[in-house]
Amino acid sequence: MSPAAAKAGWSVVLEKTVRELNGTPCIEFEDEPPAKQQIACTRSFGHPVTELIELQEAITEFACRAAEKLRKQGSHTGQIMAFIRTSPFRQQDPQYSRSASIPLPSPTSDSAHITQAANAIVKRLYKPGFKYAKAGVMLMDLQPATREQLTLDFDETMPENRVRLMLAMDQLNQRYGRGTLKLASAGGIGALPVWGMKQERKTSAYTTDWLGLPNAWS
Description:
The chain has helices spanning 3-9, 12-21, 52-72, 111-125, 159-176, and strands spanning 39-49, 75-86, 97-108, 132-144. The chain has 218 residues and is an alpha+beta fold.
């Protein structure tokens, strides 16, 4: 195809694709994708949630996952946002949707600190009498972990200890599976929680899990 015809009939992007296929470099590749400006973890619940403790278990899980992504890209967050809402598709139920954010005293990637802030938001937003269908956490005001903002801290625990603790948690969960080590506010280990997602139609992990491989019988 003529590059000019591709541009005239479709777009500049297709023109560049045609030129690339003909051996002319036009599209730059990123060796490393840029760091995200916001990191969010949101989920719809498998079943309606009515109790605060169940909401906080879900928010703990979401906050920890977001914090893990934050550490993976080598960043700290300076502001936490959380939300809860009912399902707009269940029009027979009372509707409620709220969100709020909290600025942190100093940027962090510590799962415990992030979870504490997120749960404080949910506790303030929560109202009984509603069937909550979705919740989430967003980490905002991200900055490189190498940029440190000093504050007065009289805690006996040194920040380096917390960094090593989070690193150990990430390594254990990566080696033995997600949820091997988690915060107590995420709830106990065992049956799927009320807020757990429905996964009856989840695609099998054929390429990453031996147990997910299909069996072929002759």
